[in-house]
Amino acid sequence: MHLPSHSGKCTGFCDVAIEVKMKQIFGHLLVWGAIVALMVASLGGDSGSDGGAYPARPIKLVVPFGPGGGSDTFGRIIKRGIDEAGLLSQPFVIINRPGGSATIGSRYVRDAKPDGYTLLLLHDAIITAKYSGKVNYGPEAFEPVASTGEIGMVIVVKDSSRFETLTQLLEECKEKPDTVTNGVNLGAPTHFAGLQLEQAFEGSKFRFTQSGDGADRVQKLVGDHIEVSSFSVSEYVGFKSQGIRAVAYLGEERCDALPEVPTALEQGIDVVDSNRHYWWFPKGTPKECSEYIAGVLKKAMQTEHVRERLAELKMEPNFLQGQEFADYIDNQVAGAQKVGEQKKPDVPDIPTGVGWVLVACVVAMIVERRRSANVDAKAPETSVPEVSKASPATMRTVGLLAATAAYVFAMQYGVPFVWATLAFIPCGGFLLSQHKRSHALVLVETSLLVAFGVQFVLTKIVVTDLP
Amino acid sequence: MTPTEQAIALLTAPTGLVLIAIGTSLGITVGAIPGLTGAMVIALTLPLTYSMDAGNAMILLVSMYVGSISGGLITATLLRMPGTPASVMTTLDGYPMAKAGNPGRALSLSIMASFAGGLVSWLFLILLSEPMAELSTKFGPFEFFSLVMMALVLIASVGGKSLSAAMFSGMFGILCAMPGVAEATGEVRMTLGFEDLNGGLKLLPVLIGLFALSQVINDVLRIDNSVEQIPISNQKLFPALADWKTHAVNMLRSSVIGTWIGILPGIGANIGSVAAYSTARTFSKTPEKFGHGSEEGIVASEAANNATVGGALIPLVAMGIPGSVIDAILLGALVLHGLQPGPLLFKQSPSLIYTIMGTYFIANFFMFGFLVLAVRQIARLTDVPRAFLIPVILTFCVVGSYALGNRMFDVWVMLIFGLVGFRMEKLRIPLAPFVIGFVLGPVAEKNLCAGLMASGGSYLPLVARPMSAVFLVISFVLLVVPQIQRRRGAKIPTATTS
Fold first, then answer.
1. Which range among A353-367, B9-23, B336-350 shows the weakest confidence by mean pLDDT?
2. Handedness of CA A221, A223, A226, A228 (dihedral sign)
3. Which pLDDT band holds residue A9 (cuts at 50, 70, 90)?
4. Residue A427: partners with Cβ closer than 8 Å, 6 or more residues away
5. Which of B141-150, B179-188, B287-296, B361-370 is the most confident on average?
6. pLDDT band, residue A332 (cuts 50/70/90)
7. CA dihedral of residues B299, B301, B303, B307 (deg, nearest 10)
8. Cα-flanking dihedrals φ and ψ of residue B490, to 5°?
9. Which pick of A231, A409, A411, B14 has the fewest CB atoms within 10 Å?
10. CB burial readout B81-97, b (16+ within 10 A) else e
11. What is the DSSP string of B73-93?
12. Confidence grade of residue A382 (pLDDT, cut at 50, 70, 90)
């Protein structure tokens, strides 16, 4: 380490040396203090109180969507309800596993140990994912726990649209099939709502258009890029001011939040559809666990916090469990089956196209390099200096990468994060500093600091599950 | 509370100010350490903002962005190494001036110019974003597709030395974004039998691999090279009033150039500073001094590279199109916090946009203050032995990739892309087009397919709709004209990304 040069003057040199030494010792003390504090903080409160009674460990709730979305928000509302009322003796931890239209998260829970500690929160997408062919499992691969909260759906057009009623809309879809564009998220509940309308009104046909999430669909609706779309009631209330209008509410009766919107049933269209949040355990989880958690959820739904927030989101605090819930799911599955497998939309094969352009680029690049190599063969290499194959630097790099791979492997196969890190940082540093003994103490300190620091931040503040 | 008041409340709250201070100072430090870049630290910080609310997360990340672009000036001046690629041009004049015994003056000029560049581009940010967002709400899928094509072409044709290498990089990026659930149809594709790939490759592990891990590999290979640092004596760092006056025109011109280059999608801060530098030389009364410690050169480079930050934020907040690699990460941060980047962001979360704008403004003052007060301490920090730093960075790379999806698969993705990035740099293939392709490819596909579904399979609207046609013509011109110029042997400004 290049310390700022204090040398040069003879007088006072020793004082400076002592001062530097003192500073170093003080620095080390400070670091050890921090390490101990972080150790206590990250391990504290973790000593399991397992008296045998369920739950003896924290319960993980897997939300198969990113933070901030509808499901995540709902999960966090319930979590707060549970925490505030102290309904669970163990922590209730939310883990987001987004991606693949919720199939990444649902697959994770399906394959998890059925011990009652991994819970999934997933709405009707669990059914639609199967019947649109994304995955080969549906609700039958899980243990149903409960259904909480119901969000109604509305069919929406632009304010200035020529469609005044749902019947009028569907009649045009029948007269001129495949002309009215319906903006949906293909294979998701919005798509199924449209398909159900088609089913209920013989001969009508929408032109379904991939239009993304709620915000996207509003923009496309207002900008005349699509003519119809479906929204949840809470989305609709939020977006209404941008110039959209509901022609039908897909509930049994009119919605309290939208008394002016007639139901589809009133207009003679036999479609009732809504979106509910379902809670699932992996198949094979003991019945007692499901019942216990269903009980907790039921109580959570009655807490003040949950009631207030659900009212804000225009959600009905409905609750189903046990046989009632199982019947409801069967009904939804039957609905999805009736709609049946959909023909794949006809779009260009982009990956193949990109692949060909990529090949063309490679060819162009090779030709160009050949040519320029001939022209300026003597031009000096300006980029990274070429390091010969067996130079110490190369060996060290390979060694370090191997150590990193070993580090990741170890954690994948069950070595706890803290231990793996405590081994990895000193090894890596030792390798890089060419085995300097003088660095050993600092490296050990660094590894302790990082290992416990990261452990503390991620498990206590951010709440993820480290390996 | 109006959105503006909300943003002000968030920014003036102790948390907000502390986050700006942390972000700016950390950004400066990281920017100053050669081998650590802004993209790297921002990608590694993103998982930590996970539990914050969106406003605070953006405050932290935007301040880091400002700091990291500025921090590079320290090492550029004292070590003749660009701390970040954006300060390559500063090394040309800053180092000679420092070598000639005026390190304090070189730093002082850089700091002043950085500050001015930030403020000028902030003005553009607040003036241009809303009209641009307003305009783009009229865009339908076809317009978006053409716009994205224009952005992709722009980065390939203007971004580097070789069109074919840049195109390759961009296309490879698009291809890497394809596996998983297709945005347009909802089908699962190209997973090669790995169920883990159903969700596709995530932006963050890919970025951490490309920009952090590959940089670490480079650093380790060169760990033995040490450079002597020029010590700063107790020279005055606060820019004198006379300097502000002398360089006002140059600073303004360079900042405007930087801002406009920043707005163009995909072109980063280094090109902004190259363009401003050569313009300043053209207009200078003493062009012969450039490269030998010219004050104007330092000012032009630093004003422009800071101005690109504000410029690049404009298409990000207005249309959801990232102007640079770091903006691609910020875009990821918005998505992570459940916000849909795009023209509607202005309507849905105006307070967040005002927060971003306000952060950018305040962070520039913090940056100025930190640099004037603590440049000596920061300069000393750049000396931390790599043997301590690198294993820690590797740990953060692993944890950062893991924490977002809670799965080891992402960590392996990060490791593989680290090697890919390293190889690509060795083959002189630029990395930036890859990232832009990776981010914009799916956007282009989604919009094209949505457009085709709505038009019943007809491609006609692509050229029949006026805005879409304009974008396509511009992209065509951008693609063809530089090639013709190159054939004729005309000199076109190119930049090196070292």
1. B336-350
2. positive
3. very low
4. A403, B391
5. B361-370
6. confident
7. 170
8. -65, 150
9. B14
10. bbbbbbbbbbbbbbbbb
11. HHHHHHTSS-SSGGGHHHHHH
12. very low
Side chain identity, residue A138: G
The answer, for A225 touching chain B at a CB cutoff of 8 Å, is yes
Does the CB of B194 have a partner CB in chain A at under 8 Å? no
Annotate B116-170 with DSSP letters as a single string. HHHHHHHHHHHHHHHHHHHHHTT--HHHHHHHHHHHHHHHHHHSSS-HHHHHHHH
User: Looking at the predicted complex, does its ipTM rise above 0.95?
Assistant: no
* pTM assigned to the model: 0.84
Residue A126 CB contacts under 8 Å (≥ 6 apart), including other chains: A102, A106, A138, A139, A142, A278, A280
Do strands A118-122 and A244-249 pair parallel, antiparallel, or not at all (unpaired)? unpaired
Widest distance between CA atoms in chain A: 101
What's the pLDDT at B227?
A: 66
Taking a C-beta distance cutoff of 8 angstroms, is the pair A20, A12 a contact? no
Amino acid letter, residue B153: V
**pLDDT over 70 for what percent of chain B?**
94
**Cβ–Cβ < 8 Å for A126, A260:** no
Instruction: Report yes or no: A10 at the B interface, CB cutoff 8 Å.
Output: no
| Domains assigned to chain A | 59-150+275-339 (3.40.190.150), 152-272 (3.40.190.10), 390-467 (no CATH)
Interchain CB distance below 8 Å, B394 and A133: no
DSSP secondary structure of B338-378: T---STTHHHH-HHHHHHHHHHHHHHHHHHHHHHHHHHHHH
What H or E segment, with its residue span, contains residue A247? Answer: strand A244-249
- How much is the mean pLDDT over chain B? 86
- For helices B103-136 and B241-263, the axis angle rounded to 10 degrees is 40
- Chain A residues with CB under 8 Å of B429 CB are 365
Chain A CB contacts of B425 under 8 Å are 383-384
What is the Cα–Cα distance from A424 to A102, expressed in whole angstroms?
34
Mean pLDDT of A327-354: 81
Neighbours of B428 (CB within 10 A): 17
Token pair of B450 as six digits? 């949505």
Residue with tokens 């039998």: B193
Number of neighbours of residue B474 by Cβ within 10 angstroms: 16
Q: What are phi and psi of A384, to 5 degrees?
A: -50, 130
CB pairs under 8 A between A and B: 272
Q: Hunting for tokens 């063309």 — which residue is that?
A: A360
Could you tell me which of B273, B270, B261 has the C-alpha nearest to residue B302?
Answer: B273
Q: Please give the structure tokens belonging to residue B9.
A: 């409340």
Answer yes or no: is pLDDT of A49 > 60.
Answer: no
Shortest distance, CA A463 to any CA of chain B (angstroms): 8
- What DSSP designation does B321 have? -
Task: Tally the residues of chain A.
Answer: 467
Q: Which residue of B has its CA nearest to A421?
A: B395
Hey, what are B262's tokens?
């920043």
Q: Can you tell me the mean pLDDT for A121-138?
A: 83
Per the document, the length of chain B is 498
B48/chain A closest Cα distance in angstroms: 7
State yes or no: cis peptide before A467, omega within 30 of 0.
no
Inter-residue long-range contacts of A18-21, CB under 8 Å, 24+ positions, other chains counted: none
